[in-house]
Amino acid sequence: METVFPKCLKCTDGVLLPLSDYGRDGASIMYKAWVCSDPKCGFHLRIDNGELSMGDEIGRAPVKK
Questions:
Q1: Among 54, 57, 43, which residue's Cα sits nearest to residue 14?
Q2: Which pTM value belongs to this model?
């Protein structure tokens, strides 16, 4: 069975790739975010506390040492 991802809503060159995360209590959250596979595009969709956000730049968290 082949997996087909949706085209990016911004650039239409990349596809949206699903990302999962863990909640506050450690429960798995499937498909919390979708990001464009084209690094030059940066489009993403994200669900936080039931609210949908989208943007053109992907933020990066600082690396803890």
A1: 43
A2: 0.71
Q: Show the CA angle centred on residue 10, arms to residues 4 and 6, nearest 5°.
A: 10
Q: Which two tokens stand for residue 46?
A: 């994200």
Helix (H, G, I), strand (E, B) or coil at 15: strand
State the average pLDDT for the chain: 84
Note whether residue 30 is domain-resident: yes
What percent of the chain has pLDDT above 70? 85
* Residue 41 domain-assigned (yes or no): yes
Structural domain boundaries, residue 26: 16-55
Query: 2 lies in a domain?
Result: no
Any residues with CB less than 8 A from the CB of 41 and at least 6 apart, and which?
Answer: 8, 10, 11, 13, 14, 56
Identify whether 24 is part of a domain: yes
